[in-house]
Amino acid sequence: MIPVRDKPERGGFLPVRMPLVRLAALVVVVAGLKAAEPVIIPMLLALFLAVLSFPLQAALLRWGVRPSLALAATVAAVIAVVLVFGLLVNQAVAGFVEALPSYQGRLVVKAQHWLELARERGVALSDWLSPETFDVSNWFDLAGGIVGGTVRGVASLVSLLFMTLVVLIFMLAETLGLGGKLSAAFGERRELLDHVASITRSTQRYVGVKTFVSALVGLLVAAWTALLGIEFPIVWGVIAFFLHYIPTFGAFIAAAPTILVAVAQHGWGRAFGVALGYLVIGSVLGNIVEPALMGRRVGLSPLAVLVAIVFWGWLWGPIGMILSVPVTMILKIAFEHSRDFKWIAVLLGPNGKPAPKPDPAA
Questions:
Q1: What total of structural domains would you count in the chain?
Q2: In a domain, 81, yes or no
Q3: Gap between the Cα atoms of 246 and 55, Å rounded
Q4: Would you list the DSSP string of 302-336?
Q5: pTM of the model
Q6: CB atoms within 10 A of CB 224
Q7: C-alpha pair distances (Å), 151 with each of 140, 174, 297
């Protein structure tokens, strides 16, 4: 008699099947994010601008300005800032692109001279290096396309400006009655409203402080390079501004092309001064001023930053690289206020000291 096997219990295959289902769902979500790039990028930029400009709108409302006028004034201020910033960047980048072949030629000549001096002293550097190693465009590619992509990202931002501003207007208009809408929808769940308010405050504080410090970094870098006589200080300030959103790696990527141009233009002495300026500015503002303004320890581990840059850059290109850390940081803030996903925020955060063991005597 053939033994009859017991039927598997209902859900018996779930431990094996559910991880595959979740992985498949994750792949579908990532593919959807990549396919929806033309729509998501303007919305993210609009959200970023809305978080930065909302304090102005709130201040106008506190001063008794009518909501419609406060909205119009806020949007007008954002448009004015973006247009002035775009015109300055466009003018500086146009001149830099024209001068780029000249810098490449100077670096190649200097590289040939250094290789020849090394050969005369019996050091065969030519076996490992060639003059093409010092081609500025190759260094841009080595940096992952962030520096060159920043320029292209600014140009593409202009083409996305109209859609971004339209979304921004609707976002700011929605905030006028958002509090009452949330209270009406979740009034009986006060804990949920408190979580939303806490996430909003933390996000506004992070984005505001990060943008303020990034602007200071850009201004100081532009002033320092102009003082040292490095051409196109506005370009270096803009690159430093954008890349300061990327901790740890952003300062090195921003300094590399500036140092190369300083070598091509003036030599190693001025290039050392440029590197020293980047080091001092990044150390003081990034490690002292910014944590003090944040008010609490907030940040990402270097591995999380690297993974975020690679992932969001692959997903959305140069603009995704620039927005990678702010987006990941906002997700970390949201996870910190969730009981189910707080462990993800802990893994994304920097390494901390282990909790002290309780004293048995106490």
A1: 1
A2: yes
A3: 24
A4: HHHHHHHHHHHHHHHHHHHHHHHHHHHHHHHHHHH
A5: 0.72
A6: 22
A7: 11, 32, 32
Please give the residue range of the domain that contains residue 101.
39-176
Which residue shows structure tokens 């930065």?
52
d(CA 319, CA 161): 13
Reduced to 3 states (helix: H, G, I; strand: E, B; else coil), residue 5 is: coil
Half-sphere exposure of 91 (CA within 13 A, CB side): 7
SS3 73: helix
Report if residue 121 sits inside a domain.
Answer: yes
Quick one: how far is CA 350 from the chain centroid? 17
In a domain, 350, yes or no: no
Q: Determine the distance from the C-alpha atom of residue 333 to the mean position of all C-alpha atoms in its chain, rounded to a whole number.
A: 15
CA atoms lying within 13 Å on the CB side of residue 238: 25
Quick check: 287 and 254 in contact, CB under 8 A?
Answer: no
Euclidean distance between CA atoms 39 and 160, whole angstroms: 10
Query: Tens of pLDDT along the chain (362 residues)?
Result: 455 444 445 544 445 466 777 778 888 888 888 888 888 888 888 888 888 888 888 888 889 888 889 888 998 998 888 888 877 777 777 777 777 777 777 777 777 766 676 666 665 555 555 555 555 555 444 443 444 444 444 445 555 677 788 888 888 888 776 666 666 666 666 676 676 777 777 778 888 888 899 999 999 999 999 999 998 898 899 889 988 887 777 788 888 888 888 888 888 888 899 999 999 998 888 878 887 777 655 567 778 888 888 888 888 877 787 788 788 888 887 787 777 778 888 888 776 544 444 444 44
Q: Give which of 279, 274, 254 is closest to 264, Cα–Cα.
A: 274
71 is a domain residue = yes
Burial of 202 (0-12, 13-18, 19+ CB in 10 A): buried
CA distance 252 to 248: 8
280-313 burial code (b ≥16 CB/10 A, e <16): ebbeebbeeebeeebeeebbbeeebbeebbeebb
Helix axes 302-336, 190-227, angle to 10 degrees: 140
